[in-house]
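Hi, can you check this record?
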Amino acid sequence: MAKPNYSGVYHMVSQDKFDEYLAALDVNYALRKVVCLLKPSKHIEHDVNTGKMKIKTVTTFKNFDMDFTLGQEFTEDLGAVDGRKCQTTVDWEGDKLICVQRGEKQGRGWTHWLEGNILHLELRAQGVTAKQVFKKAE
């Protein structure tokens, strides 16, 4: 079965437990409150033939870029959230994208999956799971 193509622009429609997730990352209270008010968009370029991906999270506060090849470990700059770096690998698990981040926070990572024009993002750190839902722009 062919893997889904994640390319597109997605706008956030909801989030759940994001403040708790940021607290698990030791993000200070004031910054957490600002970040939780943001409604990010995700701009994704996905080359299904090479596995190269670019995910740009765009907000009015700060943007965050990830540029990687599926299955290959890379150093991720987490500066958009907490100014740290970690070793990251993103790869397929079925038709979901699974990210494992190795660094100072145990169990940190995320999962992306598509259901039609809806992009789901589940974020994990220190036993806390948050969820964001995005809708693809037409």
